[in-house]
Amino acid sequence: MAGQVRLGCGGQLVSAYAPFSNRSIRGRVTSADAEDDSGNGKASTSVASIPQDLDETAARILPEASTSEADAELEFVPRSGGAQTWTRFKLIWALPWRRFKKGAVLILKLGGGITEKKKSGFFSDGKSMPQIIEAITKAANDPRVSGIYLKLDRLDLGWAKVQELARHIRWFRKSGKFVVAFMEGGGEKEYFLASAGGEVYVPPSAGFSLKGFAVSGSFLRGVLDKLGVEPQVQRIGKYKSAGDQLLRKDMSEEQRYQLTALLDAVYDNFVGGIASAWNKSEQEVKDMVDSCYFKMEDYLKGGWLTGLRYESEVLADLKKRTDGKEDKPLKKVLLKRYSKVRPSTFGLVGKDRIAVIRASGTIVGGESSVPGDNIQAAEVIKQLKKVRGEKSIKALVLRVDSPGGDALASDLMWHEIKRVAEKKPVIASMADVAASGGYYMAMGAHAIVAEALTITGSIGVVAAKFNLATVYERAGFNKTIISRGRYAELLGESRGFTDDELDLFERSAAAAYTDFRDKAAASRGLPIDHVQGVAQGRVWAGKAALGQKLVDSIGGITQAIALAKKAADIDADKKVRLVEMSFEQTSLPQAILSGSSLVAFLPLLQQLMGASRGSSQLTRIPLQAWMGGTEGGGAMALLEAAVLEGAMSSQDVLMAQQRPGKPLYLMPDFKVDGAGNL
Q: Where do the Peptidase S49 domain residues begin and end (predicted)?
């Protein structure tokens, strides 16, 4: 049965709401002599204020924000008979590249990474969060689509995106259409998403196993000592564990505490989600995980799988479900082709316009030649200014998926976000991670929406440089510096800090932290002493962050769009047009390398090649370290090779290391074994 979701917005789905409890309206906040647990004495006394119009916007939308995962579930509302008839009429006149046979199965092959920005270009495969969610929404309303075939490979995304995708799969099933999931291998994330479909098949010999979750941290001080590298680190915030990586040889109690909390959040979410999907008790799920079955028959006997079948058998069954002829191929439509079908065909687009800006990756200042891998402040600011000046745009949804990065770039974007918020509602939707600079951006919005497992916060500062004097001495390398100015050699790596330089370094880091913390307090309308208690570099799961008032609502981008409509005085049942401001252009080389592990190293290679000026040794050694070594060992081999060559400073190498993935100094270094990075 075709249908539409209540509060539907241009192909996106929006949840039903429960009242938001005890949310204070943001306004004037003060703090007097709040204790600074980072060891820097008292927090500064300050007064922070929020413009009255921002108070009123928050007051209008927050009472309807969802406060639990159950509240964030999407409601399916069938479309009227007239609307369905009008859709069928429009499909008669569809262009050839938007046509396919009635009864077709939408094929969703998901594996590897899924980008936040909408993919464009001839070589695009359409595998992005907005295009996948839009495809699911259209398919529920498309009379030509009978169901979804969800084929899963190893997923390289965080739990928040997995939660969001699973929510939309569950919503699709409410339309009365089927979802069949198949996977030849996988772990917890793949199984969690597959279970949302209701039917899960694996071959008898599948490489599928649920082992549970383990969290680990890596510490480099012992390696640095052996290399003769002295890390000089100023860390503000006792939970800013990136400093621990450089300074310690083992895990601190503070890091152990916060990682345990995150691990428990992931584990509890998995157990609860699987229990609900398979109609089991949570204890049964825990017992199943602890059994660590390696025979697929054991999962089937326990009621954790629908059946053991090879893909050819699953596809043959789908052909029968769709009344296909035995001698004909399965009627299907691929995501790439289906992305060309307009949501307006199904009445999912209205006249009122809401802009969506997607900021994904490490935050960098200036210009970058690597598209799609980072957040370029100049580009985001340009988009924000366009939204601010466009009168036809009623509200902005800011989608953030970033562990942070350049402090200045983060502040410049935050300022521009606040300027947009002075003229129209701004709602932030946080994906897998919004930490450090990522959270800095989000806190400029009127309200923040996060998934239950979004990595949130990390309001803290780590400043560091490496003293490589011993490395240089061992290698017989000499670097002579002639300078003018008391602090001209502050960040030089050939010696350690002088007393004056160390004092300046510490004071500048403390000032950066105070500025970040106080702006968070002002933006969130919270007392500084409260923010001091939840900051200090600590990261929170989204659900826990809600309890600490770091976010306002649990849900995905559909929830954010609903709040944006509410804030812009757009009727809840009225459709809107989403104006996507951020795109990722897919080139031929990227299309060829798609799915290859080499893609992750392209930014690193570019950085190294540009620095080495053709040095074969410099590019060869680090690449071997990254491809063949461990994460920590690879980073140190890269550092040692580059600085000994003399072509890069330690700071350059550290930045090169950050490009392809998680910045070393911005996030706790931890992995959830058996399920990829948290």
A: 172-320, 420-570
